[in-house]
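Structure tokens please, single chain.
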Amino acid sequence: MSLQEINFDGLVGPSHNYAGLSLGNIASASHKGDTSYPKAAALQGVAKMRGNLERLGVQGFLLPLPRPNHRLAERLAYDGTEAPALRAAPWSASSMWTANAATVSPAPDTKDGKCHLTPANLVTMLHRAQEWPDTKRMLEVVFGDRDHFAVHDIVPPTFGDEGAANHMRFCEGHGSAGVEVFVYGRPGGKFPARQHEQSSRLVARQHGLDPEKCVFIEQNPVAIDAGAFHNDVVSVANERVLFTHAEAFADQQGAYNAILAAFPDLEVVEVPSDAVSLEEAIRTYLFNAQLVTLPDGTMALIVPEECRESASVWAYCERMMAGNGPIKHVIPVDVRQSMANGGGPACLRLRVVCDPATVDPRFMLDEAKADLLEKTIAEHYPEQIDPDDLWTESLEKHVVAARQALLTALGIGELA
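Here you go.
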């Protein structure tokens, strides 16, 4: 097999709206009640995918889940008098952030030599806890080759699990055996700690990982309370490199030592607080970036445009590119619609190391399919959604028809 890392981006759904449902996500809360632009958001996402397809030669995607979710509305006894958060939850398009779709362990790391995926239960937030049944169903289609993939049930909901956003992997090359790092939070702070330590340990056992090649690290509670609701808001890894803020972990040096004990070739690029404050790192999502290896072997950091607009962040990036470290390129992309709801380039993608030939080809991007997605979005997505539009008959018809148009165009009827 020819193993490659494939980024599966979540296509922004036609119900994309700003309801501010995510406690601890400062961007989401600050844009609560704003008008959203689903068509623009989805086209920004496709443009990002196009760029990565050109840079990396391979790109996948996952589709929006069915919205509004009438099953959830029925369980909430919805009658239109609910609190705004309950009213909005069945419309949430948050599945676009596929870093929370699942935790993925590539075949070289697992006992049975298969790529294992455990869908995240996302139990901490109502609007996200509804996702996993449909997410699992989609993963079972995308990665349906049972000779190469194993898709598991969720972790029991007693333990919160938020997927790959709290998981890193270090290796010499994506196709070689690696060390998997699980980052968890402890409860009791200002905002919820969404990843439970036992969830991470259960996933590692379920995936058949070598205990000597697993590292469990506590996220810095200060970072969580500052708005780093997932580890990928303050750290990102690729192959041998960890790009991280100096305040990412509860015991920063202890975290490095734990990883080094399992992976001696670790190379840490730490951004000091006096160069980029924790608050500015979270505001601009410097670390919620895609750190990728380009075909020439150099590494590139794909960041949101907001990084270029920050004096301290961009000054640091320029110094980094001019230095002799492993990250040679910083590439800004426009994902402003996603950023306003609290998700940057890293939130929008799930990393899966596998042979592209083993993936359902309908979920693999090429230029023709990117054209098809853009055409379908342009023709069928709502231009904008205002808070009062939710639960109107006209918006529901529009959103349902737009998702169906995607499924029809791509020939994926089994997810209807």
